[in-house]
Amino acid sequence: MFINIGIVGATGYAGEELIGILLKHPNVRISYLCAKIDKPKVISDIFPKFKGKIDLVCYQPDIKYTAGGESDLVFLALPHTVSMKFTPRLLSAGKRVIDLSADYRLKDASIYTQFYKTKHADRAHLKNAIYGLPELYRQDIKKARLIANPGCYPTCAILALAPLVATNSVDLNSIIIDAKSGVTGAGRKASIESFFSEINEDFKAYKVNAHQHMPEINQELSGLAGKKIKVVFVPHLLPLNRGILETIYVKKTQNTKRKTQNTVSLYKKFYKKEPFVRIRGEGDLPQLKDVTGTNFCDIGIVESKEGIIIVTTIDNLLKGASGQAVQNMNIMYGFPEYTALL
Amino acid sequence: MFINIGIVGATGYAGEELIGILLKHPNVRISYLCAKIDKPKVISDIFPKFKGKIDLVCYQPDIKYTAGGESDLVFLALPHTVSMKFTPRLLSAGKRVIDLSADYRLKDASIYTQFYKTKHADRAHLKNAIYGLPELYRQDIKKARLIANPGCYPTCAILALAPLVATNSVDLNSIIIDAKSGVTGAGRKASIESFFSEINEDFKAYKVNAHQHMPEINQELSGLAGKKIKVVFVPHLLPLNRGILETIYVKKTQNTKRKTQNTVSLYKKFYKKEPFVRIRGEGDLPQLKDVTGTNFCDIGIVESKEGIIIVTTIDNLLKGASGQAVQNMNIMYGFPEYTALL
Amino acid sequence: MFINIGIVGATGYAGEELIGILLKHPNVRISYLCAKIDKPKVISDIFPKFKGKIDLVCYQPDIKYTAGGESDLVFLALPHTVSMKFTPRLLSAGKRVIDLSADYRLKDASIYTQFYKTKHADRAHLKNAIYGLPELYRQDIKKARLIANPGCYPTCAILALAPLVATNSVDLNSIIIDAKSGVTGAGRKASIESFFSEINEDFKAYKVNAHQHMPEINQELSGLAGKKIKVVFVPHLLPLNRGILETIYVKKTQNTKRKTQNTVSLYKKFYKKEPFVRIRGEGDLPQLKDVTGTNFCDIGIVESKEGIIIVTTIDNLLKGASGQAVQNMNIMYGFPEYTALL
Amino acid sequence: MFINIGIVGATGYAGEELIGILLKHPNVRISYLCAKIDKPKVISDIFPKFKGKIDLVCYQPDIKYTAGGESDLVFLALPHTVSMKFTPRLLSAGKRVIDLSADYRLKDASIYTQFYKTKHADRAHLKNAIYGLPELYRQDIKKARLIANPGCYPTCAILALAPLVATNSVDLNSIIIDAKSGVTGAGRKASIESFFSEINEDFKAYKVNAHQHMPEINQELSGLAGKKIKVVFVPHLLPLNRGILETIYVKKTQNTKRKTQNTVSLYKKFYKKEPFVRIRGEGDLPQLKDVTGTNFCDIGIVESKEGIIIVTTIDNLLKGASGQAVQNMNIMYGFPEYTALL
Predict the structure, then answer these.
(1) Chains with ≥3 CB–CB distances under 8 Å to A
(2) Across the strands, what pairs with D96?
(3) E strands present in chain D
(4) Shortest CA distance from B277: residue in chain C
(5) ipTM summary value
(6) Which domain, by its residues, includes B171?
(7) Is D168 found in the same domain as D40?
(8) What pTM was computed for the model?
(9) Nearest CA of chain C to the CA of B258: how many Å?
């Protein structure tokens, strides 16, 4: 089987990464590229690393145009609030869509408005969008027309907490997520704040308990728990290119009698069949470089009498964005789930 | 007034930094340098940045020798367990000593043994050593013969928590310290783990709830509270040279009715006369570069209904080591406390 | 003696650095700050590291206004082409001016036009501006009204080559300058190209034989040689904050019989009385960190039968910009030349 | 076809990279791993990024043992001077060998002794070893038993200069190579000099005209020219993980009349059929990130009346080491040359 792929937003970090992955995929052909650029350009003139590998022209986006005329599937690697302008037309034209923005992730449109500062423009499709976290929604993804590809922080946090939350094994009101992300997480855009010398040799917390990924984490954990969960979420900016590491603190409930080994066992069992989640032995913690350049999510656990500390890490551009998007594509089209991702 | 200074361990990061600071100090003369080196060398041949500023020979250490014959004060910038071999002789010779290692910080020698894997070799002086955190012990420092200069993580954590702990304003069992440090915190020593390419573009947690600075934090906070406090402490390694930032989570007690403004006010009052502690306005958080290269500790506070998040940052080589050591020296000799530190 | 200082362009890297240096200067008071900002702000709200040290309001620039009403001296830390709009008015108002931009460096206005893509707007003052390289023009600087503070690459290159060029000791047609600069050299401005992730873990040559600092180098070397010199100049961008290192290749003329020792001797003699130029012994090469954070220019020499290789390094924000500007100020006002610079 | 592979020195940077590449190769099986470690360990416990991909035990090396009993081909990813102790036995046992060290690169054993400070211990095989630069020696590589895999700097320099040198188009006495390398080029080994904080935010030249890769470059260029060539070679250390960029300066001979376009054409023709050399258009220069993570060598050219400036870049661990080694393996076994390398 062989499918044609369109990428809208091909020149951002997620778009660039998608091209790189899909060039290694034996079952797809990139047939359409567009991005917000001055004039059409050959993509390998924009990214010389692709020279000799792909010669496709990258066009300027045209909302009126049904993007990627011959595409079977379109990846939207666009800023938040822009994707929802492209999606309806693409779906109408019969394309399947994987949206890497946040536009279809939050089921409650009023929360979307609160965190993204705009009204949702496509509620019709919002309600049918599938949250593209394969570990939780694989069956729904298979037949989805529209995938809301999860955010990078949420992918990392939800995978790290799902086994505990789904089994109601801890104090669900005690979850603290201290998250650290590399710079590509913010997307490729010009600003004084993201100038090299402003970030290099610096480190900071930002958007404390106000980051737009927090409601996404709360939504998914609440769904798993069957009751409302509200996490404390403090993201920090690391002076490096790629990778997220989250240190998560949860308290045990008084009646919890499980030992560390059991928590590790719980996680190993929960993710037994997952190709991209790796659980470490007790006290063995993953670090960023164990996953950068891969689609893996690595999880380590340290347990004490009072609580559990979970350290989890992904590559924000792969399992946190483009890798997961391709994993979703593989599921949607019945390709082996790891194709082009190992 | 004018004093002679000896530095034992002059070629480590703390020693190098001490030299740099003291060269700017109008009331001191560096009169003796030694370090674990192959043969005596002019210090500016070891650190060419000091060329034209200081020509002193750095000798090999000689325990039998009463270090720094004419020194009034000796800084020990040595690895843990080594300082306590030098200290007794120096004190006997009438020198005052500021020890930058951990050897005289923990009042309970059994805890020292537990975390530093050796018996304490100088309990006689341990009990009289003054913990050199000026914000808490300024009066004692003035007349001290032996200063135990605080650790970098503890300086940052204790200053961040002292106002809340001393006033018993929060749930003292709920303290979580998620700490991140630059690489110089580990000292200048060869190992595969600290090779450039192993740390660059990487990030990791280490010694989770097992770091040797944790009992130091517990000791000081317990002293302030008047009861035993045990924090959760997770240090992480940042791929940058200098600076510590700690994100601290505390829960309120149920009867706490204070608002954010009040917490900020509490801190501003607590540190009102301190030359090197700066409190930000509500929700305004410091970042590493606000303090790197300075002796300041900056503290920011975000308060919510459930708890308080404190973000605090210091330069680990200045307020976290050599800067604080000179601050202590200034206090001991009656120099203006900020001399050579602004 | 005590003077009042104005800084126009206070929020760029050079302006920020000027503030830091001048705060340590016992003979000056910063009395006026302005910069291209949205609205007037306290400077320590823009740079929190200055909190507790300076509270001055930074205003928006007003060309019509005679900048810094009470200033004796004004530093212009502005982009090229902007300084020449401020300078005439300041000089008319009796201020002395140190311009850190390139506007008054090139004596030939047509070359200025060629490299800066605009006509020179103030030729009247151009001809009287003094090129502020103290090692060559100290006497002129003393009484100057307008200093053209040298570029960072040229400071490094001219100091590295002056002894050879002034004595006509090498093949003057053979000079190749392979220059590498940290990122602050480009100024603080937003662009995709200077985004952290675009520069981190990358390295590149740029503006090969076309950089605007090349004619400045050619002008000064030609002046020293008494004949036209045209260097090959290839700048590169280093993924670090500050510092320039230049590796310079020159061929000997056939009749040159000098040995290495002689070249080093020549340099040591040439710079004997200079407070900020340090010459290394034969084969001992400086590296960036020997000078970062200092106003020094360090020079090392490797000589072989065929030619001489010179490695030279400065901190681009200090000896390459703000440090040198303050050195010039010290000369202009008769302060010890190293004041606030050691 | 399917072959078994042994890797001796599996835990260094080159070994780690080899494992990563070979895991993607459809025609090979890694059957033997050894390295200088404390005790045998599962390779994915040493490199957790390989968890779930390879479980092989990495053994300690045993010179007496014929390494990799069932291996058809053995990669030696060892320090210089160690490889030549393993090679004779492996060849005797009928294995083919690709040696990534320098031990079999220099045809003149006396030069080896001069630069590597030891006598060559296996001259018998030295004379039959093939220098594994496919662009020059592809036919010989096909049937080689022993490949001397080229050094990283030489790969970059020789590919950049071969078209000019082979056609005698420039002044062959004028070649200056200003080379800059990331830190992995020095191998994974502990030393104070390679400590993170010593390299981060620093930059330096080293081994000026004395680096052990210089005679390798001279040997190959001299062979191409048919006469003795001696380059000026100055390597520098970049504060980043991987990649080499070389800026090369050559003078034209007086009778050269070629224009830039012609030089670019010459290069494009010279490398027309090469899968891993990419020539840029006139004045379009490659940067490190165009090749990091790939096996490509990118070359850009700027030509002026006086001379030619060539900027060339490779990933030192791929085209400069392990990638090229696998390229050689592909040639030796008739696999498509790019297998596992795109």
Answers:
(1) B, C, D
(2) D73
(3) 3-8, 28-34, 41-42, 57-59, 73-76, 96-99, 130-131, 146-148, 176-181, 204-205, 232-237, 244-251, 277-279, 297-303, 307-314
(4) C52
(5) 0.96
(6) 153-314
(7) no
(8) 0.96
(9) 27
